[in-house]
User: Fold these one by one.
Assistant:
Number 1:
Amino acid sequence: MAAVWQGDWEHAIEQARAALDALSGGAEIRRYQALWHYLTASWGVIAARQHPTRRQSWLQVGTRHFADARAAATDTRWLAELCTDAEHLLAAQPGQRTETPSDTLDGLAIAQIAASPLREDARQFATLTRTVEDGLAQSEAPAYEQALNALWQLAGATKALKRTSAAAEPDSVWMFDQVMWLGWEAKTGTDPDKEIPAGDVREAASHLTYASHESGQPVPAGSVTLYVTHQQRMHHAAVKVASAGLYLVTPEQVSQVAERLITAWQTIRTQTRGQDLQQAGATIEAALRMHRVLPSQWLEELLTRRISDG
């Protein structure tokens, strides 16, 4: 860090690589590896800006370490903003804002909602919201799963994984194109005083892989799965088998997001009547932001407790 303050990027990067060499181990230290790869890549970009004659060599440092940071940060949320590359950063002016995964995800949801027939079809909107509200108010699996498989349309996802009642099938997987997938495992009918078992966690951790196999598409980086239950205690084996991208949420949290989405949609349907897609997009963004239901907003709210952390 002393080298960084002095602008001695070569020495700073040399020392960062030494830190990475010392960080050998398993999954428990991958986030530390991701941090040091991110710092090394960022310093490489800064060095390339300040020393144009060595631009290409510094650019290679940035490109390689950003790629390593992304790989080390797989299934984590704290480095989820890392979607750019060294070339892109170097092309941008210092201080200029670059697009993040959250921007892309929010933009996709806004576009999906703008194009949705639910904006104009009052009967279809009423039927769908009734399914969501009634289903999320119940603990029985069929009704709750049906609600999840309707709610994706209000959230602005591109589609949901088609249900076939096959063995090991996820309760729902929302697909925001190839930007992000959101898996769901609902255990709303369980005894809240009992521990979450390892078997259920292991099954939930496989949902995105299942969706990838069924859809023939790779799981996008940064995709996560939500385990919905009233249970708050986990068996120690459940913690061990949980993937880093599996999060614990309560049915109340899901219901709160759903209620805000429905309220936002009511505003959207009223205020965008007769507007074209471009006009509607600005109105939709404002309504979603006001009710805190842009995907980046409600994901931040739900992704607070990782099961692998206990």
Number 2:
Amino acid sequence: MSTHLRTALSLAAQGVPTLPLREGKVPFGNCPACAKNICGGRPNMKTPGPCICPRPCHGWAAAATDPNVVNAPTWVRAWREAAGVAYHPGGAGLTVVDLDNAEAIAWARASLPATRIVPTTRGEHWLYRGAMQSANAVRPGADIKSSMQYARWLGPGTGTITALPDAVQALIVKEPTTVRPVPVTVPAMGGECPHRTPTYLDRGIAMAEQRITEARDAVHATVYRTFLAVLSTHGRCGCLTEAHTARLFTAAQAKGESPRHCTDAWTNALTTLGLSHG
């Protein structure tokens, strides 16, 4: 049994989802049956564990705690070739603050509560109890590795793990950006508004915001389809205001969409529905 496999089985026994890493600190690529995710991957790719194939496919989502999976023949072959062991911090209820240099470490010592520290090749991993959204480059030399991300296993570290502090969670909160929504220029069609109360419209906008926020991929397409759905329901009675549009644009920009992409998607939705004036 390889050293990496022994480490992985020990982690799995402690409830830490683990997977093999190849050279370059990256997971093994998907097998032919799973190449380019043609197998569909795991449902929503939100939880660790193997897909239907018996190999360690799908990166962090393959991380497993079942010893029968970790020690399966196809995994054993991967462990023989592995250059290291990784784990899914979020699946273990942990968050890793990955500090890449001395400056980042100095910042953490001055700004974050003391917790367990694991030395790395270039810096330190600070481990906290509690999972959160992962994010890269939250500040110079610092990444957050937790849900839907993997981290290298470099040993248990030293110190007592403390609860995930607000100071770490605040690192992924983006500064507000200036939102420039397209004014809704759809004329009212006349007659009584079919929505009757502002509550109906507000609920629709809130659902649209949630749909955009929860998009895991194809964000451009999701934003356009959401704008189209909002306008098809609320675009002809004159209820929509710039405040409503701003809420949708803010949600889209929080997912990485630029103001221009938001403007284009809104304009295209208006045109598709025959609501554009130009």
Number 3:
Amino acid sequence: MADTIQDSMPADYMRGHFIGRAQSPSGPCVVTIENGILHDLTQQVATVSGALGRRILTGGEVMGPVTDGLPEGWSLLAPIDLQCIKASGVTFALSAIERVIEERARGDAGKASEIRAQLEDTIGSGIRSVVPGSDAADQLKAALIEQGMWSQYLEVAIGPDAEIFSKSPVLSSVGHGALIGVRSDSDWNNPEPEVVLACDARGEVLGATLGNDVNLRDFEGRSALLLSKAKDNTASCSIGPFIRLFDDTFTLDDVRRAEIELTIDGPEGYRLEGRNDMAQISRDPLDLVGQCLSEHHYPDGFVMFCGTLFAPTQDRDKPGAGFTHKVGDVVTIRSDKLGALTNTVTTSRDAPAWEMGFAAFARNLSERGLIDRI
């Protein structure tokens, strides 16, 4: 378990301040890392939601250095508990536009360049510089409609309203080292490596972590109305390893320029590498948070998946078939400032059942005399 903790941390973890959760023999605990030392904060505040909301982020019982790992019988959990799990999609407009152009050009690079030039002539600027909801975006939309290239995905890519959806129920996400699930009846699916923002009830962003917004491309591709079935399944949401709290060593600007690396190592020796470059995101992370908050209330806070630039095209089994997961795939999402989130793929049917919902969680805290410290 020592390796599980230290190997998941960023290189500069000794300078950072982190918060997360671990499963102890008696139940879930809130843990922090400061100056490379693990602390158990549970006796002060029994939920990460409460710790962030009430700013109880330091102190607690010293557990030892990160290099010693967690105590025997403990394991990491997702670093959130009572927060709503929200996500945004199609947040990299250039990627979405280019995909539409490529489909229209049918793989002809010269034709794609011609279509791109025509669109840029219409809007009077480069497609890369188009800001969602701007006048230039409206002009681009009109040009795309005129050429029969408009889609519902482009509406949220360059329109005024971002795609915001609920990824997974409260307390259902899995953490670093856990099995992650795809539906057993999905034949085309992929990981989505993302930055996840941790927000309090007022929408203030207090830190960030990594997430895997597992996606079923076959389900969502059949109909956008199948989004919830494509996104929300047992063990289909992974978050971790820890939330890195904002301070002098880590800020929102680090999130804005983060480079997220992805590797997939298959049981048959297959390897895929990918990248999500946050500098190319079309909507600022704070805009996504504001659109999520909107006219809603999240009394226990929320986390926000920011979307991904990554879309795997590398063939796996046969030419032209593209990528899809196999049981046994080891997926690692890594960032210099946030560490590494690693999960092994199984099916949602065979993944460990999600059993600790809010009632079970509350009973556990009550039995431990912690219910008033939520």
